[in-house]
Write a structure and sequence with these properties.
- The chain is of the alpha+beta class and 77 residues long.
- It is built from two helices and four strands; from the N terminus they run αββββα.
- The protein has a domain of 53 residues: Ribosomal Protein L24e, Chain: T (Roll), CATH 2.30.170.
- 42% of the residues lie in helices and 21% in strands.
- It has a two-stranded antiparallel sheet with strand order 1-2. It has a two-stranded antiparallel sheet with strand order 3-4.
- The protein is rod-shaped.
- The termini are far apart.
Length: 77
Amino acid sequence: MRYLIYAVLAATVWLLLRGMARGRPGPSGQPGSDVALVEDPVCKTHIPKSSAVVVHRSGKNFYFCSERCAAAFRDAH
C-alpha cells in the first residue's frame, strides 16, 4: 500500500512540474516559447514578428509572411 501512495505522489509532482514548464515561453511562440508570433491577415499563417513584412495602415501595423501577401493586402485596401 505504501508503494502505491508513493507512486501516486510521484506522478502528481511530475504532472505539476510538467504543467508549469508548458506555461513558460520557448523558441516557437507557443507556450514554452519566447518568440512573439503574429498572424498574417491574408493567408492566416503565424510567423515570428521579427521576420514579418510590416504594412502601416490607418495608424495600425499589419504583419505578413511575405511581400506577396503584403501586396495582396495593399491591393484589397
